Batch of 2 targets.
Target 1
Amino acid sequence: RCFCKLSGEVDDCSCKVETLDSLNNNQIYPRLKSLLARNYFRYFKVNLKKQCPFWSDDSRCALKDCHVDICQKDEVPIKTEKQPDNESNNQHEKNKYTMESNKGEQGGGDCTEERQLSALDTTISDEKKAEFQSWREHDESLPMFCEVDDEHSNDLEYVDLLLNPERYTGYKGLSPRRIWRSIYEENCFKPEKSVGYGPEPITEAAAFLEAMCLEKRVFYRLISGLHTSINIHLCDQYLFPAKNGFGPGTWGHNLKEFQRRFDPEKTDDHGPQRLKNLYFTYLVELRALSKAVPYLEEEVFYTGDAQEDADLKEGVKDFLAIVKNFPDHFDESQLFKVNSQEMLQLKSEFVHHFRNISRIMDCVGCDKCKLWGKLQVLGMGTALKVLFSGDSMAGDSTVNASLKSDFQLTRTEIVALFNAFGRLSSSIHALETFRALAR
Ligand code: FAD
């Protein structure tokens, strides 16, 4: 039996790994794979040129497989900005466009708060000002888990995700080590009381995790699950050098690399736990999609091609029905449950630490890894925004809690949410391949 054949409950959840294997490999994965190949989901808007805000840049990576093919403006075959339809009965769409046009009138994303306010003071009526203020309060009431790329930056570009798959790039050594260390050691939480942990890596020692409250463990498991997923993909689509040392090499599954990273004997017993964290992260994002079902069912998935949009909407509906009917969802109401000053403080640290991780993604020294790192962190941040907005933020959450009626997601957030979940789904599916190879 391969060590990657996990069993039993996912830690901090009541759902079993076997249940998720079956749900994912038989139902979710095939549907998502075909949805993510559609135009709406394959073009992702991103700024890969942002400066690293924490240390001087590791200079651009010269590795060939780190290169990202950017779409030229006339190459993106979709329209992304629908004009508000005054005749529409769809309140969800109306809210969205009212909000977006208000944001535009405020002066755009590259203005400072003060300039926006003074522009408002001189040109806009009191009634409009009150409306802007209420939108601002609304925006500020949503927890912003990610620092989003400035919508008005000239450096924003579209990337075709299918032409730039997440796979082995050769990015290794000091640069990724610094990123992962900074994420785990500076942005994951530590127990208040010192625990007698043993050898490295301390963040994974069982005593270290058990000494922390649920919220802090959840934070760690989410990041570790993402890390596992990234590393599974590089093993699953690995570039083997050409046998004679010349030529382009061949892509394939690398069982040895997978074993080096996840076999308990080669990882001081940490491998299976890292794999289980992948299932944990999957469950959290699955639950976010389920909570967002009423919102997503109203989404137009606009590309400018009416037939394509209608077909995609049907496909998403079929996928969401499976997500919604899953009986064993992660229960986010167990988090931030106690109504106390300390809990409020913890909630704000949770958001702040996650935001920092989203900024660290601008320090990744390989463009392909940065693209997928930014997308997956934004997708996870969007999942957290869904889980902790609306009813649950008001403190009366239940697994059936719904989102506030004025809740909004941008196209980029939706694309990131689906693609990030697609990555986790593809990792769980890849475990099946490694199990077969190890037999
Ligand atoms: P790393 O994966 O760098 O791990 C560092 C240390 O973290 C390990 O020694 C271990 O102690 C601990 N650790 C490892 N896994 C976990 C886990 N799941 N949970 C908790 N702790 C863990 N490379 C590619 O080829 N393609 C990519 O698309 C790609 N994307 C990346 C995206 C980001 C954001 C980053 C930071 C790196 C990316 N990399 C990618 C690099 C890749 O993740 C590894 O860093 C690299 O292969 C070197 O691996 P390593 O063996 O040194 O261990």
Target 2
Amino acid sequence: MELDTIAAVSTPMGEGAIAIVRLSGDEAIKISDTLFRGVGGKRLKDVPSHTIHYGQLIDPKTEEVAEEVMVSVMKGPKTFTKEDVVEINCHGGLVSVNRVLQLTLKAGARLAEPGEFTKRAFLNGRIDLSQAEAVMDLIRAKTDRAMNVALGQMEGRLSKLIQKLRQDILETLAHVEVNIDYPEYDDVEEMTHHVLLEKANHVRNEIEQLLRTSQQGKILREGLSTVIVGRPNVGKSSLLNSLVHENKAIVTDIPGTTRDVIEEYVNVRGVPLRLLDTAGIRETEDIVERIGVERSRQVLKEADLILLVLNYSDDLTIEDENIFKAVEGMDVIVIVNKTDLPQKINMDRVKELAKNYPLITTSLLEDVGVNELEEAISTLFFAGTIEASDMTYVSNSRHIALLNQALGSIEEALNGVESGVPIDIVQIDLTRTWELLGEIIGESVHESLIDQLFSQFCLGK
Ligand code: GDP
Ligand code: ZN
């Protein structure tokens, strides 16, 4: 495959003391050499692979020194893209990074499209599609756990599982072929029926198992969108503050990947919460009163988790009761705050209202009960199961969609076998399942889909 040489900034714009401009392609070293002035006239084309060199970057037109740089030279195929890769480390300011990038473009590189480095790694056979997508997830990973899931996927854990399932289906299809080729033997038909049921059942169970991990995967990747509701003055802002203060946001720093901008995230015992920022919370303070139970239900429906706060030192009001109505059927944790003050709330009624939810009492002022709240959050979402380290999480929405379709067609196949549908119809469903699973690892994907996938990547990756 003949691919041109691409370049992009592969560190976040305007951040950090050092920025990297990365080049990949046949001409990467040659282009860099036209710009680089090493100590004692050193040329990059002569240096050993995987070494780093100090020097100056000059504008070849004017011979003016543009930047002080460190340049890494990595010759293919032992690189991320399998092509020759040069990384120019320069000062992190916006102006100097841009200057370096512009110089490489003037010298013959082409500005990389979003995700193009990863796309090349895929096209050059370095990684499969699910691994490529994992790179994107890594960039966005918000907690250590999310990172491990993405890393596991990149190492090909999901790919291996999918490949094994496809192999199972192929073997099943082979049995079907025998049946179609020798329909006159009764015992072949009986054996086929038996093998089909067993194999198809196995495949269905495995797909279901993978899908079960997807909800947790989504949470790990995107964070639980969490809304704190309650009447004014019950302690919502205080709750937000103690959650933020006690749980520092995780900053991922993986060599060779872009450090994405970190959002206001908190990691509560492995559960990433995406808390509405203070401004957002303020707006929802009187949400139920302002827009009514029905409308607020609509708004709250978007949330994965509701933290419903009540005031221990005040009577329950109709407003409190309305909030309970608005969050019915959702994942709710009820927090009775201000227990340091004399009790006025009717706890029997609270217990009645909260009978389906965990109920926590807190004094946020005195820092009491926050641990219990965190425990409740983690129990609610992990129920202990997520700790299993060898579990494969499916967290990518494209994978989930494909797995659901694959589940549909394998169930069609199973129903077919059970109700005695002609075997060649069953064969079609099995083949379809095989194809759908193949799309996850990019083995039966159309070019256009590939382009679409890679365009989602950050520029420079
Ligand atoms: P919000 O209006 O629901 O966001 O409530 P705030 O978090 O702004 O708190 C309202 C007031 O209650 C503030 O003065 C807080 O300091 C106070 N407060 C919050 N939690 C407690 C608590 O546990 N005990 C006491 N005594 N006061 C609290
Ligand atoms: Zn507030």
